[in-house]
Amino acid sequence: MSVAEPVELPEWERLRVLRAEAEYSSVKKDRRAAYAIWVCLGVFGGHRFYLGDTGRSIAMLFTLGGLGVWALIDGLFVARRVTTVNRVRRAAIMARYGILDIS
């Protein structure tokens, strides 16, 4: 079985993909920033505000991160949440541009 050669995209298609990638890079969240915010403002839900989880952020704000317990547990899942948020944002942007994203 032979490996298929990469297909050269037409210029207009290449520009569309580059535009979509540029839009994604402008909205993608950084894992290090999320952890830094968690360290400084974890009990107030700052990392959740950063990731766009407004409802949970407000709940953490009013309960002081579940008296700190919720905030500590959240520290274990910040990286996974950043990955999920970035994956959803990338899929939405690629779909808006009509690009099939298989990454």
TrEMBL record:
Q: Which InterPro entries is this protein grouped with?
A: TM2, TM2D1-3-like
* Segments traversing the membrane: 33-51, 57-79
Task: Keyword check for Glycoprotein, yes or no.
Answer: yes
Keyword list (alphabetical) reads:
Glycoprotein, Membrane, Signal, Transmembrane, Transmembrane helix
The record's Pfam families line, in alphabetical order, gives: TM2
Q: Does the keyword Membrane apply?
A: yes
Q: Which residues form the TM2 domain?
A: 28-75
Membrane topology summary: Multi-pass membrane protein
Predominant place of localization? membrane
- One GO CC term, this protein: membrane
Which protein is depicted?
TM2 domain-containing protein
